[in-house]
Amino acid sequence: MAATSKLAAVADVFLLGVFSFGILPCLTVYVMNQAMGAPNLVTTLNVSALHISNAAGAWLGRLVIESRFGLPMVPLFASFVTMIGIMLLLGSMALAGNRRQCWGPTGCHPVDQ
Questions:
Q1: Residue 109 — φ and ψ, nearest 5°?
Q2: What are phi and psi of 108, to 5 degrees?
Q3: Eight-class DSSP state of 69
Q4: For residues 101 and 111, is the Cβ–Cβ distance under 8 A?
Q5: Rounded to whole angstroms, how far apart are CA atoms 98 and 28?
Q6: Along the 113 residues of the chain, how does pLDDT read in single tens digits?
Q7: According to DSSP H, which parts of 22-112 are helical?
Q8: For residue 5, which of 23, 32, 37, 47 sits 20 to 30 Å off, Cα-Cα?
Q9: Closest CA to 53 of 27, 73, 72, 35
Q10: Which pTM was predicted?
């Protein structure tokens, strides 16, 4: 719907940036809590994965734009990529059976279920 108006498109891109990058601090804290003994390594891998996914998204968007589908189909393909990401997240959460929580200098402790 925002593709028909320049003002709506600018507002849409702004809100997309706010919501997509607003989750980064939460994600960083989550992976640091899961890291147990190597929070710096996990934070580095987290940021690297975000940069790789940003580049992959731009590359995939270029492929969609240059294909027979064209520019109007980019949001649809982006929603498919988002659904794949959500499925990977849910699968990761399901596989995380041995949950531990880390805080302060006392280290990691099992989480009560």
A1: -135, 145
A2: -105, 145
A3: S
A4: yes
A5: 20
A6: 677 788 888 888 898 888 877 878 888 888 888 787 888 898 899 889 889 988 999 999 999 999 999 888 888 898 898 899 889 878 887 887 655 555 555 555 555 54
A7: 24-35, 39-66, 74-95
A8: 23
A9: 27
A10: 0.61
